[in-house]
Structures are given as structure tokens and as C-alpha cells.
Amino acid sequence: MTDTSSSSAQNRTAPPQPAAIALANAVARLASAERLLLALDFDGTLAPFVDVPRGARALPESKAALDRLEHLPRTWVAYVSGRPLESLEIVTEADEDALLIGSHGVEIRFGRDGVALDLTDAERDTLTRLGDALRELVDSFPGTKLEVKPVGYGVHYRTVEGGRGAEVVAAAYEAAGAVSDGLTVRDGKDIIEFSVREAHKGDGIQRLREYTGATAVLFAGDDVTDEDGFSVLDPSTGDVGIKVGEGETAAQFRVADERAIATLLTLLADARAGARPSSTT
After folding, report:
1. pTM to 2 decimals?
2. Helix or strand holding residue 254 (H, E)
3. Burial code of 254-280, b = ≥16 C-beta within 10 A, e = fewer?
4. CA distance linking residue 215 with residue 194, whole number of Å
5. In degrees rounded to 5, what are phi and psi of residue 48?
6. I want to staple 146 with a disulfide (CB 3.0 to 4.6 A). Which of 124, 138, 191, 217 is the partner?
7. Dist. CA 168–CA 179, nearest whole Å
8. Which are the contacts of 66, defined by CB distance < 8 A and separation ≥ 6?
């Protein structure tokens, strides 16, 4: 018979894994950064996925930690999402001074210094025809939903019937391709998006860095679209990228889920509140 009591005791006293130690050290360095920017994806990172997108909310532990962080000196919290800005404002419960990057970097709101989005006549025409084509597609696939975005559309197939997700994606590519061969395409988690203007989360993070003058950036995200954000980070200057969940990534670190991010943010808030920011980070 196996002695489970002794094995349990060993598990409780097992030393931390090297990756966990490295992440803890990275958080400690972030805590002492001279000017710290936290740029965070929302869905699947701060908030669990839900069937009704506007019903998503950050886990209470994450929300509490971020509220503490954004009130600390030389610390900025920003949300970087594929959601349209209007939707992002709702789910993050953003105030007038919030830093928001919506539509994968197309829409930018730097507090009260928001950036307007102006489409050309050609872009508006393409957008109209794209909407018509994708509405027809969604009508033919029960369980799909069409999300209207400022410069495009997203076809959600999280609740599509009969496991027809791949069929939906193929049909969406065909429908959008018949409208224009110059569209920007993003294939995310249970959503395929088409846009008439190119931008990505890395662009948004770079704009945020310039705006805040950050000397170190933490970016966390769960989706393939977040890889653009990880690609602009510079670990040699103290930047930290964290992949949430499974999948290939360029991020330095990986955590399991939204609860792990909540724990990490709480630890970072505790550490930064007690740290003296470094002038050399």
C-alpha cells in the first residue's frame, strides 16, 4: 500500500519550480520600476469567457488589485483588447481617465485625450458590403453571432450547433474574400474577424509606452492576437510578457488561467505599494 501521508507531506514541502521563481523575480523587478505600465488583455486574462460578451467582468481579485495599482505613483493601468472601444468601456467599468486600446489597436483612448477614428469613403463602402455578406452568413449558421466593430466585423461561433466551427470559419473567409482581398483577418478563440484597416495590439502597446513614458511594461494575454503585443516587449529593459493558458507563445512566462493572473496582480500591488521605485530601471 502506498504511504499517501508521506507523499502528501513531500508535495507540501516541494521547492518552487524554476519558472515560478523566475516569474516571482520578474514581478519584484516590475514592482521597483521607475515608471510602470500594466497593459492587459481582458477576455480570458482578467475575465472568464462568457456567452454574452457584454456580461463579462474582471474577477473581483483582479479588479481590486488594479484599482490599487492605478492609484500608486508613476503607475498606469491600460486595457488592450480586440473589443470595440464602446464595449471595452462597459466591461472594464472604465472611468474618464482610463487608458484603453480597442479593436486590436485601431481605437485608442488616452483618458480624456481620446483619439478619433475617421474612415475614408472607400473604407466605409467596403465595410458596408462586408457587413451585408457576413450577416447573410450568420443567418445561415444557427448559433453564430455577428459583432459589429468600428472597422470591421467579428463572427462568433462559440455556441454554433453541431461542432461546425471550422465550417463557419471557411464560409466566413469565402464571404469576406468576395468583398475584398485587402482585408485584415484575425482568427481568435471562437471568433473570426475581418477589418478594413490594419493595426494590432503591439501598435497599441507602443503608443501606450510613449504616452506614459513607461520604463517597464507588463503585458498579459491569452489569445493568438496577443502575440503581437508580446513581440514589442523588451525583457532586457524589464518588460514582462505573460501568456495565459495553453498555446505557442513568444511570452517569457505562462500561467494557467485568470485566477493566476489575479494572484499575480495582487502580489504586484502589494510589492509596488511597499517598494521604492528605482531611477535606473
Report:
1. 0.75
2. strand 253-255
3. bbeebebbbebbbbbbebbeebebeee
4. 34
5. -65, 155
6. 138
7. 17
8. 38, 40, 46, 58, 77, 265, 269
The residues near 245 (Cβ < 8 Å, ≥ 6 apart) are 44, 222, 254, 256, 257
Q: Nearest-CA neighbor of 223 among 260, 190, 194?
A: 190
Instruction: Specify the pairing of strand 184-188 against strand 152-156.
Output: unpaired
Q: How far apart are CA 273 and CA 264, in angstroms?
A: 14
C-alpha cell at 183: 482585408
Rounded Cα–Cα distance for residues 196 and 192 (Å): 14
Cell numbers placing 239: 518588460
Contact 192/168 with Cβ under 8 angstroms?
A: yes
Question: For 53-73, what is each residue's pLDDT tens digit?
Answer: 889 999 999 999 999 999 999
Closest Cα to residue 216, out of 67, 87, 26?
26
- What are the cell numbers at 61? 481579485
Cell 454554433: give the residue.
Answer: 160
Beta bridge partners of 152: 149, 195
Q: Could you give the C-alpha distances from 248 to 70, 89, 225, in angstroms and in order?
A: 31, 29, 12
- Smallest CA-to-CA distance from 132 within 148, 156, 111 is with 148
Nearest to 146 by CA among 123, 115, 176: 176
Torsion of Cα atoms, 168 then 171 then 173 then 177, to 10°: -160
Dist. CA 163–CA 250, nearest whole Å: 30
Return the C-alpha torsion angle 258, 261, 267, 270, nearest 10: -80
State the Cα torsion 130-135-140-143 to the nearest 10°: 120
Enter the C-alpha cell of residue 215. 520604463
